Amino acid sequence: MTEDALRVLVVHNRYRSAQPSGEDRVVDQELALLRDAGHHADLFERRSDDIAAMSLPRKAVVPLRVPWNPAARADLAERLRAERPDVVHVHNTFPLLSPSVLSACARAGVAVVATLHNYTQVCPTGTLYRDGAECRACVDRLPVPAVRHGCYRDSRLATVPLAVNLAVNRRRWWSAVTRFFCISAAQRTILIESGMPAERLTVKHNFVPDPGVHRTGAPDHLLFLGRLTEEKGVRLLMTAWDRIAERGGVGIPLALAGAGPLRDEVAAWARDRDDVQYLGLQDRAGCRELVARAAAVVVPSTWLETFGLVVVEAMAAGVPSVVAGHGSLDELVTDGVTGLTHRPGDASSLADALRRVVAAPPSLGVAARQRYEEEFTPAVGLTNLLAGYRAAMSEVEGRRGTQTVR
Fold first, then answer.
1. CB contact at 8 A, 115 and 91
2. By C-alpha distance, which of 347, 157, 75, 329 is closest to 236?
3. pTM score > 0.70 for this model?
4. What is the pLDDT of residue 3?
5. Both 122 and 111 in a single domain?
6. Has residue 128 been placed in a domain?
7. What are phi and psi of 108, to 5 degrees?
8. 304 is in which domain, residue-wise?
9. Which end of the chain is more exposed for a tag (fewer CB within 10 A), N or C?
10. 203 and 291 housed in the same domain
11. What's the number of domains the chain is made of?
12. DSSP conformation letters of 281-297
């Protein structure tokens, strides 16, 4: 370690491996980035996969500890005493960590930053989305509507722990975290409108390593890559593609890669069709190859995406995107320059954009790659990450100085 190297402890609850999350990838990439730059970065984690191996009594306790897990708090407190990090970087705490980790950090007096990958600070499920439309029914109030509608897994009972978590810990987050990283300006705006303290919200985009494979030659397909869920626009895409097929297609198939609740529906829809390929869940190398061979990556999300990692991965490969023109997606893609946008939730508009992108000039992919090099490389990511850490550390030191003077 160099003299100015930082000691960073990253706190994260990994998602189930059966449904991979971009959050896990961001955590791993940031850890590798910090270590390669000579900083001491370590990980305090829990894994949702571990729940399956628990005994029935332990499984029964998991929902009860979503709002507060004393065991996780004690374990983290021990790590903080042993390692004495300069800064703690919190990502996901659901379901096995809980916001109790913030209490351990406060007791240790360490600077805390938290990346906000979604909207869980103001919405129990983190999506601001219900029944196919934007929903802010729980913003800045008791999250009773979420329970009433069973927003998590369509279950009122399963939603209760998340609603309680938001109700009892909302202010704890806002007071215990020194600085929040929003992953897009659009997300920051929404969170400020929802009552979060603007002075603690900093925009720090996710970065993407250069994939090493770039778009060359004629494309093989249009590509949807992600979770197969309603809010990701999967059914909207299926409707749009059926309309394209009725008019003779676009000359290349639509490939869909991923897993999720709509997997069986998508597989049945794609079966026995020449213009659709359902590829299932792919590893990272497979995903990179699919992106590099795509005419465009399609992101027709009906919810307000907080970032759009797959869009930036496409940029890195010199591939344009077709995205819903709202939230962070509209921020990432300049219509007609680095890709195309369509009216959110409008199948006809999406179909038109897909037809146009197949015939679009190579300049879209060139401009997308240029935007990546300017804003989303690991070098840019490291600069922004360290700036956020040092700002948080400075704020904590300033507060200590003020308390000392008093």
1. yes
2. 347
3. yes
4. 61
5. yes
6. yes
7. -80, -15
8. 221-375
9. C
10. no
11. 2
12. S--HHHHHHHHHTEEEE
CATH number of the domain within which 255 lies: 3.40.50.2000
240 and 145, same domain (yes or no): no
Asked if 340 and 352 sit in the same domain, the reply is yes
pLDDT value of residue 405? 44
Q: What is the pLDDT of residue 403?
A: 60
The H-or-E segment that residue 164 falls in is: helix 156-176
What pLDDT is recorded for position 1?
53
The reported pLDDT for the residue numbered 402 is: 65
- Are 363 and 320 in contact, with CB atoms under 8 Å apart? no
Of 132, 156, 126, nearest to 144 by C-alpha is 156
pLDDT of residue 20: 75
DSSP string, 226-242: S---TTTTHHHHHHHHH
Residue 216 maps to a domain: no
Stated length of the chain: 406
Q: Residue 88 region, left (φ>0) first, then alpha (ψ -120 to 50), else beta?
A: beta
Give phi and psi for 179, each to the nearest 5: -150, 135
Task: At 142, list the tokens.
Answer: 């008791």
Residues of the chain below pLDDT 70 = 1-3, 401-406
Q: Looking at the structure, do residues 149 and 227 belong to the same domain, yes or no?
A: no
